[in-house]
Write a structure and sequence with these properties.
71 residues; mainly alpha; 2 helices; rod-shaped
C-alpha cells in the first residue's frame, strides 16, 4: 500500500512538473523573451524543473518496478 502511494505521488509530481515546464516553454517561445530582465532567472528555474522531472521519473520507475515485482 505504501508503494502504491509512492507511485501515485510520483505520478502527481511528474504531471505537475510537466505542466510547469510546458508553461515556461511557452513563455520562452516568445520572440521577446530573452530581452526580458528576468530571462536568466526563468531559464535557470526551467533547468532546475527539468532536473526535478528527471528525478521524479526515476523515483516513479523504482517504486513502480518494486510494486510490480511484489505482485
Amino acid at each position: 500500500k505504501q508503494l502504491q502511494r509512492a507511485v501515485q505521488q510520483a505520478e502527481k509530481k511528474i504531471e505537475r512538473l510537466e505542466a510547469e515546464i510546458a508553461a515556461v516553454e511557452a513563455l520562452m517561445a516568445d520572440v521577446h523573451f530573452y530581452s526580458r530582465p528576468d530571462a536568466g532567472k526563468v531559464t535557470q528555474a526551467y533547468s532546475e524543473m527539468k532536473v526535478s522531472l528527471e528525478r521524479a521519473m526515476e523515483e516513479w520507475e523504482v517504486a513502480q518496478t518494486t510494486l510490480e515485482s511484489m505482485e
